[in-house]
Each structure stands twice: as structure tokens, then as C-alpha cells.
Design brief:
- The chain is α/β, with parallel strands linked by helices.
- It contains 10 helices and 8 strands.
- The longest helix has about 35 residues, at about 260-290.
- The two termini are about 10 Å apart.
């Protein structure tokens, strides 16, 4: 069985060789045939030079060099389009998704499960990033109606037909987990060990994490429906308040209207209107970018010495 290992690489010049070597050893020991798809996501250090050296040593390693940083999920999409395997293994380049754990995921998929996500009891990352991850998982469950019992991560194995469905997506805003969840319901978790980052720090800033989280707008209508519900509730509340004030004025003609309460109401309603207009504008903007064929990624160079026939 051929396993396609897709690894997005970002300033991993010193680590990618170790990741490939250890993963290859684990796959060979378990009897899996393999290919590696290494995607340099716009790194300006020697990452692609390291990838090129790996490609020269093993013709089952494909190197992809993106012209600019397009984001981890877009880089994964570029890699998926080069895969030929029966199973696709997604992992990172920092040794947190450790090579020693990959066979666990592959073996777990042998029962016919379409997607196997890695899960772990303890995260080896900063507390604020772990808190952010928990919030993202919770919010994605609410907004996309994904199964509550499934923990999703970028360390996963899925089958060829799932890959074929995922790569059909042409929009510029890519969220791999969202695409996986809408492709099948035959999903499970496999518990693995989460390791410390071997070198460096995460390439995700708070801004980029928020941008990644916002990709849920591509896979959910919930924010728009929420805007409609809140608008309806505020409209009914305003009507009820107007009726109450009218009755109170009939009972007490000398009653004075409250300026502070009026301004607070106006500011609250105005703020909500602007907020939901912003959400609608974000949807329209993403639609505009998709219609204009904004690229998911731009390829600068591809090294592929595999045989032309599968």
C-alpha cells in the first residue's frame, strides 16, 4: 500500500531532513511503501535547498517551492494535488507530530475508516495557544456542525477518494479540516503522543491564527443566520419597548424620556448593525475573490523524479 506523506515546510531547513529520515524508517519497518510531498511555503532560508537535496537522494520525494507564503492549509492543498497514494498522511515539519506516531494512524485506518485524526491528552505548547485551540475546536463544532466526539488536527490519515474530493475545492481560502469533514462522516480518532517542538517557534502569529479561524465563513451559514436572528430579536424588543413607553406616557403624561438609556440603546443597536454588516461584507469579499480566481498558491518550482506511470 502506497502512503503519500504531505508535509508543509516553513523555515525548517535544519529539521526537514530528520523528519523525512525518521518517518521513512517507520514506514519501511511497518511494510508501507511511501512517497513524500514536501512543500516549501515561501521560506526564504535554505528550506528548499534542503528539500532539493532530499529529492536528489530519493526519487520518491517530491519538492514543491511556492513563490510566496500562502499559509499552511494552502500549502497542504498544493501537496495533495501531487499525491498518488492509497492513503494520505498529513504531518508537520517541527517533530511535534512525531514520526514515531505515524504508523499508529495508518494502522488505525486499516478497518476501512475514511479519516483518522490524531488526538492527545497533553499539548506540548504554550497555554494561550492551547486555549486558542480549544476555542477554535468548540466554535468550529458550533458553526459547522461537526461531530462532538471527534477531535481534529493537522496530524491525520485519509483515503484516496477523500483526497479526490478535497482537491476539487478551488477557492482561495482553504481550511483542510473543514473540507475533510464535509467529505465524509466515517471518521475516528487515534490517541498518540504529542511531542515538544524540536526547534524554533511556531510560524503562526495571533493575526494569522485569527485569519485561519475566519476561514470557517467558507463552510458555514451560521453567522448570517445569527445576524438575522439577532436582528429579529432586537426588532421585537424595540417594538415591545415602544409599546411599553407609549402606555407609560398615557398613564403619566409628565414622564421624562431618559437620554442616557436612549443613547445606550442607539449605540448598542448601531454597533450590532455595523458588526453584522461586516460579517456580510466578509462573505461578499470572499465571494468576490473566488469569482476573480484568486490563487490558492503560486508554484515557483517542482522537483518530481517519480516514474510517469503509477
Amino acid at each position: 500500500m502506497l502512503v503519500s506523506v504531505v508535509i508543509p515546510c516553513y523555515y525548517s531547513e535544519k529539521m526537514i531532513g530528520t523528519v523525512v529520515e525518521q518517518t521513512r524508517a517507520e514506514l519501511e519497518a511497518a511494510g508501507y511503501d511511501y512517497e513524500f510531498i514536501l512543500v516549501n511555503d515561501g521560506s526564504t532560508d535554505g528550506t528548499f535547498a534542503a528539500i532539493s537535496a532530499l529529492c536528489a537522494d530519493d526519487d520518491r520525494i517530491v519538492g514543491i517551492n511556492c513563490a510566496k507564503n500562502s499559509g499552511q492549509h494552502n500549502a497542504i492543498m498544493a501537496g495533495l494535488r501531487q499525491t498518488r497514494g492509497d492513503l494520505i498522511l498529513l504531518m508537520d515539519d517541527d517533530m511535534q507530530t512525531h514520526p514515531s506516531q505515524c504508523v499508529k494512524l495508518l494502522d488505525a485506518a486499516q478497518d476501512g475508516t475514511d479519516i483518522v485524526f490524531a488526538c492527545w491528552d497533553e499539548h506540548k505548547e504554550a497555554w494561550w495557544r492551547e486555549l486558542g485551540s480549544k476555542f477554535t475546536i468548540w466554535s468550529m463544532r458550533v458553526l459547522t456542525d461537526r461531530p462532538k466526539e471527534i477531535y481534529s488536527s493537522n496530524f491525520a490519515v485519509f483515503r484516496r477518494h477523500i483526497r479526490d474530493e478535497v482537491v476539487r475545492y478551488q477557492g482561495p481560502y482553504v481550511y483542510i479540516q473543514g473540507l475533510l469533514f464535509r467529505a465524509t462522516a466515517n471518521i475516528k480518532n487515534e490517541k498518540v503522543t504529542h511531542y515538544e517542538r524540536a526547534q524554533g517557534t511556531s510560524g503562526y502569529s495571533l493575526k494569522s491564527l485569527i485569519r485561519l479561524w475566519s476561514t470557517v465563513l467558507n463552510f458555514s451559514m451560521v453567522p448570517l443566520r445569527l445576524a438575522a436572528v439577532v436582528g429579529a430579536v432586537l426588532g421585537v424588543a424595540g417594538l415591545v419597548a415602544a409599546l411599553v413607553i407609549f402606555v407609560m406616557r398615557l398613564v403619566d403624561p409628565g414622564m421624562q424620556a431618559g437620554w442616557p438609556s436612549l443613547m445606550a440603546t442607539v449605540l448598542t443597536c448601531s454597533g450590532l448593525i455595523i458588526l453584522f454588516l461586516g460579517i456580510i461584507g466578509e462573505y461578499l469579499g470572499r465571494m468576490f475573490m473566488t469569482i476573480n480566481n484568486a490563487p490558492q498558491y503560486v508554484l515557483k518550482e517542482t522537483i518530481d523524479h517519480r516514474a510517469t506511470t503509477e
